Structures are given as C-alpha cells and as structure tokens.
Amino acid sequence: MTVTAVVPLPVGYAERRDAVFAPVAGLSALVRVVRALGEVGVVVVAAARPLAVLAREALVGQRLSGVRVVEAEAPGDRVQCVAAGLRAVDTNGHVVVHDIEWPMVGTDTLKQIVATLHDGSVAVLPVLPVTDSVKAVDARGVVTATEERSALRTVQYPRGFAADVLAMLVRQADSGSFDELEAALTAGTPLTLIDGDDEALSLELPRDADYLAAVIAGR
C-alpha cells in the first residue's frame, strides 16, 4: 500500500510565519520536515489559503517542487487542512500525519511507523515513558501525592493511520482544533504504540531557534 505524509499548516500560522518559513541552521522547519518525510513516501503539504503560496515558493526554492501543496477550505483550521491532505491520498493506503512544531523527524521512528501500518495496524503512535516525577496538587497548589508514572507515556509526532480510518475521524470532528489522537480515543480506534525518538521534541519557533540549532549541531 502507498504511504503519504500530510503536513497541515493551519491558518494560525499566518500570524506566525517565521515558525514555518524562517531558516534555522540553514533550513526552515517546513523544508526540514518535508525532506525527512520524503524518505518513506509522497509528501503533501495541506495549507490554509494565506500560507499555500508561501509554502510552494519555499519548497521550490529548496528544489522540492515535486511536493504537492493543497489548499484547505476556509477557515483553514487544522481539521480542514487534514481533510484537504486526505483528498490527495489513496483511500486504500496509509497516512503519516506530522506537526510542524516537531521539526526533527527521527528516520528510524518514521520507518517503524510505516512498517507497523503495513503489518495491519490502523493507528500508530510513537511514545516515550514518563521519567520525571509526577505530583498531584490541590486547588491551593500544595503537593498532595506522588503519582504512579509506570503507566504514563508522552506521545510524539509523526503519527500513522490507515487512510480510511483517519478520514472517518475527520468526518466526525466538530472542531477546527482537531487532534487525531483525541479523535481516535473518542472513537475507540485501536492504537498501536511504538518506541518514540529520544531526540524528538516540540518547539515554538522562532523563540526556540537557538536551542534547535544547538540540537542539530550536536547530532
């Protein structure tokens, strides 16, 4: 089955364009993500109207003109972006959804997601165990207990889905702030967990640009 990676660019980034297009260590978050995802399949950037032209220009400028950029329906929230990306996907194939706020894509994790989908899973999530101490606090902010963390996990991107399953979750969504994991949990979709990437992290660019550059230099 085919694998298509979808990168949503919701309308909120129209006011934070540097988070998508400003270079860090020579490459923007968009270009860095698209290049990494392109290792396992076709990449579709699904952008709100104010961002679509900028996305095409940024990709052409990095010799990525073959990457398809599709325009989301108004208002261009995340749910419309994911829906637009799905319209460019083989409904019998697999989809990898990535979030631009995770600019470092672990190749091994990405390949494991694809392999797990090919093995029959319909939703695949990379996770890491919670290693920090987790405390419960009351309304006054006073620590009342130490929570058991052995069953806790942090969830990362990218996330893999059977295309028809993700399409169903999008159709059922009633909010522009669509989160495919929350939608899958609500729908009772079987989730397959795989080991995440210790170096993957969510960043707010351009605020965290220096930190990201240091991480890249240390690799």
Automatic annotation (TrEMBL):
It comes from the Bacteria. The keyword Nucleotidyltransferase applies. Keywords: Nucleotidyltransferase, Transferase. It comes from Mycolicibacterium hippocampi. It is an enzyme of class 2 (transferase). This is 2-C-methyl-D-erythritol 4-phosphate cytidylyltransferase. Its EC number is 2.7.7.60. InterPro entries: IspD/TarI, Nucleotide-diphossugar_trans. GO terms for molecular function: 2-C-methyl-D-erythritol 4-phosphate cytidylyltransferase activity. Pfam families: IspD.
